[in-house]
TrEMBL record:
Record-given protein name: diguanylate cyclase
The reaction(s) this protein catalyses: 2 GTP = 3',3'-c-di-GMP + 2 diphosphate
Gene3D superfamilies documented for this protein: 3.30.70.270, PAS domain (3.30.450.20)
EC numbers for this chain: 2.7.7.65
GO BP terms: cell adhesion involved in single-species biofilm formation; negative regulation of bacterial-type flagellum-dependent cell motility
Taxon lineage: Bacteria, Pseudomonadati, Pseudomonadota, Gammaproteobacteria, Alteromonadales
Cofactor(s), by name: Mg(2+)
MF annotations from Gene Ontology: diguanylate cyclase activity
Source species of the chain: Neiella marina
Amino acid sequence: MSGSDFREMHWMITMIHHIDVGLVVLDKNYRIEVWNGFMKNHSGLTPDQVRNREIFKVYPDLPEQWFRHKLDSARLLKSRSFTTWEQRPYVFRFQNYRPITGSSSYMYQNMTVVPLQSLTGEVEHIALIIYDVTDEAVNKIEQKLANSRLQEISRTDALTQLFNRGHWEEQLRQEFARMQRSHRPSTLIMLDIDHFKKVNDEFGHPAGDEVIREVARRIKRTKRSTDIAGRYGGEEFAVLLLDTEPDQAMYFAERLRKAIAKKAVEFEQHSIKLTISIGISQNSPDIDSAQAWIERADEALYTSKREGRNRVTMSPNKPHMNH
């Protein structure tokens, strides 16, 4: 080997050792032949400690079946293949020491698998190139989280954490369309806090907010996970009870009415007694839209108000059991 060839090889080895990506070369039996500086720095294992050892012995938590399949395919097809952090967060579990991405405890990695052909065209070795993509991954994950939080905010009422009116109405429209296809019974409940203006006038708006929050909490405690509850207006709430017959809806409404009447809301030094009025409407063939259904439940609610409050009124629907 000439001096210039030797120098060139020396530079190449130095470069491989110092590049900011991991480089691992494995023979046909998955034994390690090259383990560069990146791999040494992040694994804590020197090239001498790993050379000629099977990679699964060095890294027993490697997903062996997946890893073998990945490498065998590249060897067979004689073409490189890739894996990204979105498919598998990492190949080698390395700690993440970078303060900028402190929200991740391990390094996210992309990997390129490169079959290395000999002069005869045989694939005797496979190179793995490991890229640290933690910054990109964490940014993307945080972006997704931020978007889902924004989505959550856009459909949630800030005061009560129930659905806001816009999102609740959208849910109602979807369920109404589903019910028209399935003809299953469902019930709509509209409820309103009695004499709410007096609460604001007597105890102030912060007390009014606490009363609204407490009613929302009691609705959450009373409803099932499948029921869809929303804050419909200032002190008005709506609950869609899915797959619910009128007598079950009446039981729910009475239980909620009693729970609210029974226990005063404590706010600062005040004990604020509350009642609610409730209107119920069963879905029926003569209701032709979600809006008409809301209006029917609202009429029942106003009947409860008119007849003295703190009561439940069932709208005189004909439940559609005849389908």
